[in-house]
Design brief:
- The protein has 479 residues and is of the alpha/beta class.
- The chain folds into 2 domains: 107 residues, Arc Repressor Mutant, subunit A, CATH 1.10.10.920; 342 residues, pyruvate-formate lyase- activating enzyme, CATH 3.80.30.20.
- It has 17 helices and 19 strands.
- The protein has a 9-stranded mixed β-sheet, with helices on both faces. The chain has a 3-stranded antiparallel β-sheet with strand order 14-15-16, with helices on one face. The protein has a 3-stranded antiparallel β-sheet with strand order 17-19-18.
- Helix 3 packs parallel to helix 4, helix 3 packs across helix 11 and helix 5 runs parallel beside helix 7.
- The chain starts with 21 loop residues before the first helix and ends in an 11-residue tail after the last helix.
Length: 479
């Protein structure tokens, strides 16, 4: 990946590759939040409720005073479809396992009510330039139901040209459905694979043939999808280096534009479906590290740029382009090419980000339907960020998305003296600098290629919540 240089001669660290140092990974790997939000969702409180969120929507972006104006930036929209036909034992998403497709009818009606409530409360226009459908399994919906849902969105929001992404289970689509998705405007699809090894698939209850995946990729390309992601998971039961190497070969033969390489986090106390996994079959830490190292090196050899965290992309893909120019943003859907858009999220458990607030919807269908039947926002909990939250969010976002931080930009934006405000954090960073994980300059903090895989462990230094109580936050780690 070529380097990019700013007008002051600073080389963007995002442009460098990742370097795997297994000794340092073993030494410093530490669980921490994925930072799809800061603070993490388990810090949300029920005191921020439907009424609070209504006020946020009504006052979105208003600047008071003689020159009062309304924020006119477009939104990103996220729609959560919770239904799945079968359960994948590793899954930690909010899902509803059912083969009764009629259950989608009421859900779509309820979401139309939620679209209307939110749209009517918004101050200013209702334009959106990014739409993402996630789940669950969005393609659980039939073609007619997907068309109904998108028509409902258009009735309440102005959908501008821009990215439209959908998560796909290859077992639930055929050529006709993919053609219909493209007609609806979807230009990015994400396909779950996890692993092609039959033993692994049986252990996690996700039986999916290579032919089903290849057929979905072929149809997507035929009908004009511009970006395809394949999701993989390392650390699943029955996985080993030889088997995952075969999976990588088969995935690379499909040449997806992006590859997501997630690390499985086994938390059966939190996620009931994971209790069906035989923990004795999970690979040990050494094997997980070997699998991850193999994958990263193999993807590099195949010319996939390391975008960050667990994402890789070919040079032509927009995600890679944005990374080269240090313009990535991270949200609840992962890396985003929309810089700091407000996010309106719909459906059970969905999390919105508007201005300086986060809000999360109720988690069950009964609660969701009850709230909307009473014409109430289905908000369960949320948080309004204080000045310290906003400052630390900016620092963590920069380190996680760009692997570097302009100290001056933070000082100007938040009116602080960085070294004074973060004296304790700076001392901890100096220890990591001695290990070669970061470089500290008067104007910059940079994560080195050796430190890329430990970005969680570095960013968490600035997380005052996790450092105060390490047990509460749902975590991710390298191995």
């Amino acid at each position: 990946m070529p380097n990019t240089i700013d007008p002051y001669g600073h080389v963007s660290k995002t442009a460098e590759s990742v370097h795997i140092d297994t000794v340092l990974i073993r030494k410093f790997d530490k669980s921490g939040p994925r930072y799809s939000s800061y603070p993490a969702a388990d810090r949300f409180i029920e005191a921020y409720n439907a009424r609070s969120h209504q006020t946020t929507l009504e006052q979105r972006g208003i600047t008071w005073g003689p020159n009062t104006r309304v924020n006119a930036r477009p939104f990103s929209l996220y729609v959560h479809i919770p239904f799945c036909g079968t359960v994948c034992h590793y899954c930690s998403c909010n899902k509803i396992i059912t083969r009764d497709h009629s259950r989608a009818t009421r859900y779509l009606r309820a979401m139309d009510s939620e679209f209307a409530l939110v749209a009517n409360m918004l101050t200013g226009d209702r334009r959106a330039d990014q739409v993402h459908l996630g789940g669950g399994t969005p393609t659980f919906l039939s073609i007619d139901e997907l068309q109904t849902m998108m028509r409902s969105l258009r009735n309440h929001f102005e959908l501008l040209p821009g990215e439209r992404a959908i998560e796909i289970d290859p077992r639930t689509v055929d050529d006709e459905k993919i053609a219909a998705l493209v007609q609806l405007g979807f230009d990015h699809i994400s396909l779950g694979v996890q692993d092609f090894d039959p033993a692994v698939q049986k252990a996690v209850n996700r039986i999916q043939s290579e032919e089903q995946t290849a057929s979905a990729v072929e149809s997507a390309r035929k009908h004009g999808v511009t970006s395809i992601t394949i999701d993989l998971i390392h650390g699943l039961p029955r996985q080993n280096v030889i088997g995952f190497n075969r999976t990588l070969d088969r995935v690379l033969a499909l040449k997806p534009d992006r590859i997501a390489l997630y690390n499985y986090s086994h938390q059966p106390a939190m996620f009931k479906t994971q209790r069906r996994i035989d923990a004795a079959g999970l690979p040990d830490a050494a094997t997980r590290l070997q699998i991850m190292t193999l994958a990263i090196r193999k993807l590099a050899d195949a010319k996939y740029d390391y975008v960050g965290l667990d994402h890789f992309a070919l040079a032509h893909d927009k995600l890679s382009t944005m990374a080269r120019h240090a313009r990535l943003h991270s949200d609840f859907q992962g890396y985003s090419t929309r810089l700091d858009n407000d996010l309106l999220a719909f459906g059970v458990s969905a999390i919105s980000r508007v201005g300086t607030t986060y809000s999360q919807n109720v988690k069950t269908l009964d609660e969701y339907y009850d709230r909307l039947d009473r014409a109430e926002l289905p908000v369960w909990r949320g948080i309004e960020l204080c000045a310290d939250d906003l400052l630390r969010r900016a620092v963590i976002q920069s380190l996680m998305c760009h692997f570097e931080l302009s100290i001056e930009s933070i000082e100007i934006a938040h009116l602080i003296d960085f070294r004074d405000y973060f004296a304790d954090e700076w001392e901890r960073l100096e220890g990591l600098e001695c290990e070669g994980l970061v470089t500290l300059e008067p104007a910059w903090i940079s994560i080195t290629p050796r430190g890329r895989q430990l970005a969680y462990s570095i960013a968490v230094i600035f997380d005052r919540y996790t450092n105060r109580d390490e047990q509460r936050v749902r975590s991710s780690s390298v191995i």
